[in-house]
């Protein structure tokens, strides 16, 4: 039952690192993944609209947007297969790869095991500091103001390598790898979870690197994945000349200021952890014009789905009142949301068993609080609802600075650890019900 | 002493209207003006760095900016002379045209008369409504998100037509037309005023269209041109993951919100009118990241230079304290400023006399409060300091909506009125002291 | 026609200064004025409800309030006539004194001339600094946290002394002195103006001391008395334990913070000067309780009545939206307002003529901008509406610090100047129509 | 070892309920407690300054304050022993009662067992609604705007009744009851904990009623008593006339608004629960004066002492920056703080054992999160530091509305339950050294 991959893990990860693409723009990334999956060889391969219903996407871009087109062109310029890129037009990125290896000997199907990894980068300009290892070793992001600052480059590497290793094993059953786009905007988890590929999952593994757990630690299953929603808002007022007629304006800039100040002031909740953030704001066109328009991208989270709903409702009221105070119209849109889910303890136990004895693993933590959000919860939730089990595991890595910062990096010693832990867990899950061993 | 122009005023104005360019990016505009000036024929023509010292510019762009380069390329694409555009590289736009017509008969130089018009557009997307005349008549802005929404297209038309008319007259002296760039950012007045071309002005006319004065009204000289400053600020904090570690951030978004709220709250002043505006704000990179950076473009004005200084100093303190409150660094820069100047009553009298009897002029208003700012005050101030006279006149126009709005338009009946009033005033000023007639 | 008073002006003024009382609580003050008026001897004397209809009062206190009762008791303790104080129960303070001296010789009534002075103090704790003259000379306020910091002590002195002087003159006509309460809250002008005593005023003088004009200057008539309104607001939310259940509160404190921030940010107006102030705020009961209630006392002003209406409407919206943002109810009440009025130039001319030649007068300023508000405008407005003339004059005084500060004081050299200017003006106005002389 | 009290519990509790007094003003309350303690009979009784060093008090009032004097007078009026009240002058309220019952048989001292109850009320006006039981049954608060809205009336009843019951038992050792003042402002815990009476506690019980646990539930020991600090701040600016010279003010009202808005926006912390509240604010003196002064009473809490320190430091920065932004001085004072402490599991076990079998107890919860703060932690911390054990237990009660609301009430069925649980626990703890069992 031993299984290995022959892929060159650091080479793969660095190639992904050099070409980060933001949510729903992973054209080059998807094309590259397709290439690697084909080279491994699978039974089913579904790309973009084949893998899910585009209408199920959350936080999706305007299909006709010039900006999306530019990402497509850039991907093609960088060598992505043009036909493949066109298939993803409008931002239908990502893929699903399936090994269908029912042994059929006993007339019974083997189990359906899934692995979910995410593939998008972030709008962060990667550090150009010589101290930053990707600079020193020459694989710094080549995409302006975009960076794999959350380790999804490592996740994709694991997705491919585990696929390769399972291919080479005696696994009997159905093994599906979800290369999910748009995790950072909570956009891709929902369509993946709604697709036929997510049907009948007996065991699902979702994985993340790092998150303040050092190289050598494996967390078998996280709890308290915060529920979250993404909120976009636009304030529309009336422009006017700031010198001649300030009174004729309905100032979207003031609505923005009021909204920011009050959003962070939404009361903390007795029932548990909540979060709120206005992450992006843009307003106005010139210093001497009363701003006619302001836009906001924000989010709210809660330790439970109820707490997220509390924050969402207060945030909506805050945005509406801020607009009203300054004579503006507010257009508030909940662009995506993801529920709270906890890992299944039994399947986490399978991971813990798998991690024990893996070379380089020093600590196996059964359970830990997550404290953030992840739209893997959509897939996990579906597995649970259909009677399966799901766990979200963390493979530790020494990272020099926090996730989502310009000098984030992954300790590549964690790459083979992740592959081995995941492969062993997938194979163990494939053998049948835990305890049947 | 009668003088006329043979230029087709509406055609000229509409051509400018179709190709607006923002401050310090008037490459196509300048090239087109040069073409027209050459066709009129002048004694001296100075373009960009020939017309002023680029170091004297205020609110100037980064010379190596890609964005400036794109405006240069666009100008060339639209047919601007490439060599001329390259001469303006880095954003050294605008020109000065001079008729040097000393008659020499009596061995004495004639007077130096100046006319200042401004040439830049605004970052406003022009209305596409069929009701909007430029749409109906096919001369809507062809530049995305940029518009002549303040009438500088009419100003340029006047500059050229008056030059043409004076050329055709018996004017004896030196007549300088300043086609000043970057008025909307108070950027071009200062370098023009510091240049040799502004030396020894006996009479200077600056002109504006409209400003809520209807077609048929001429205001001979405005008072209370507000002093103004433009302020840019950047808040630099610390990014962090909004879900995992909100406490690790120093939130530039919160600094921005605090700054906006408090900037508009700077106390009104007993000594007169003040203004403040945060016209543009941008902050953050993603909804789930605590914003590391926020930028602001704002302005402050005062009825007097002292009042402007009061507002500037309060605004600076506000921005600094907002940053400090949220653990951010504030980088506050005063990018430009212009003083308060009033029109010279005597020269305004010359304008009033000139306007009387002009066809289409129904009302001549001797003096009116301006209530806004204008960096023409730099040139006016220089003229006053060197013993000359300056007036800022308004040629009324029926405009359907306010200046700086998407449906602003000029009533073209005001075009010939402006030409005749200005030409008569220039010729009268050229004859010597008013009253000497 | 010369007229003088025999009253001891500094003694009178200092007596008033020692016993300041706030708006609608001038029980001791009124009683003292009645005593002095009786000692002068008048034809009609109307106190409190005799002088006006209590229902016409603005910003009036709750009639049954314990706090008003305490001011009544204090007045009685300090020696005020008890019966008189009871007559003013509920806060119906102030008085009107009338000399009715029609000469009847020609069967025609002489003119009706009025003088309006105000009588209330301010909630300011007077300085105890030895440098402060009232301390040094022993007439510092004996009322805790209350002070004549606006010079109404001088105004009352003038009211009495001019009454005395006119009594001693050959004035033929009706002379009414309005000792108006509650000017500081714009509360007493309206009922005085609505009363029968204000009917048929041919000439009305209202007077103020100081206002940054030095001893020796007289301003014959002010312009631009700002229109004003007083606004009270209460935010009602829901209290909750700040540690156990912050989410269960609807935080009136947050509504207050939002209201303050946004009130001062109401846009300046192109048409002229505006003002806004939140002068008093109180919220909450304990540091560990989410505040259930917050109250605000504020005001808005405008250079014109329209501008005041603009500010009032924006302020109301601001308060409503601030409440809504935090789930509170807002109860916003306009407790009083006063219109914009300008002095009549002709009657100001009478004052200017009167001031010329008065001992101690060095400068006579025909007209000056006022820049603040005054509910004398109600009386002025009535006079104008009924065909009479009104002027608001200023008798300068050197005051060491600003009005409404703890170290404000009046230069007593201005006391006799005021008496003589006013008496001469009243007598001149009494002679008949200007120009009829 | 059975012990009972003969006190009439509802009668006692209702008597306390009728006379609530706020922190450091419990003059009548203390006098009444002394009376009851004397009637029970104890070995040591220390009142006010005898019980602790007044200098150790936190959040103590100004000793010479008129307001404190008024509470003293009111207590005397209501029948409190005058000499006793004077002994507490300046606000040194509270008492300690001791039974010293060493049996001495074996020459060894018995254990020192403590019980801490708190005695202060809250500034809340008790509901006058007929539905509210204290109204219906005639024991509504007779103190204006003050109420036992947190159940301290029940706590005192328990303190007395357990003292009585232990007195009647065969308890051998030292039993100290701390009737602690000023819990609501975290003011009395510290001086009690520093006193000699708190020395050598082997077991300490602190108790609270209700807190959302119903009648019949006992929580044996709470965890997560939030660390807390109380913060007072004063902003001092410059007053000015809001109409004449708004620019001359340094507006403490604006500083207040900015402070409120930003205080609630202090970022949530990844490490756990935090709280912040501005509970009381007062600013300004008149609607037409720019406020010279504003005061704030606020608090911050954290799940750990470190988190409280984080909040405290951010809150201080917020207040300082808000002042600076508006040219004011900020005087920020941390008036009291209390640490995070958790109950000792072993001693909680003693409580759980005691609760089992008590009549009316339906549920015994071993441990529960507290989620609020309590300055009982000072005493608990001292016991722990000196090698003893402490637990904070909750005796459930059905309360119709939340603690700290106007309609809070205690279900009196919980009174005997509390007495029996506490008495049994005290006696069990008194049987010997932990571990000696």
UniProtKB/TrEMBL annotation, chains A, B, C, D:
Pfam families: M20_dimer (PF07687), Peptidase_M20 (PF01546). GO terms for biological process: folic acid catabolic process. The Mn(2+) ion enhances activity. Residues 231-322 form the Peptidase M20 dimerisation domain. Keywords: Hydrolase, Manganese, Metal-binding. GO terms for molecular function: dipeptidase activity; metal ion binding; para-aminobenzoyl-glutamate hydrolase activity. InterPro entries: Amidohydrolase, Bact_exopeptidase_dim_dom, Peptidase_M20, Peptidase_M20/M20A_hydrolases, Peptidase_M20_dimer. One of its GO terms (cellular component) is cytoplasm. Its cofactor is Mn(2+). Mn(2+) binds at residues 150, 152, 184, 208, 404. PANTHER family: PEPTIDASE M20, PEPTIDASE M20 DIMERISATION DOMAIN-CONTAINING PROTEIN. This is Amidohydrolase. It comes from Halogeometricum pallidum JCM 14848.
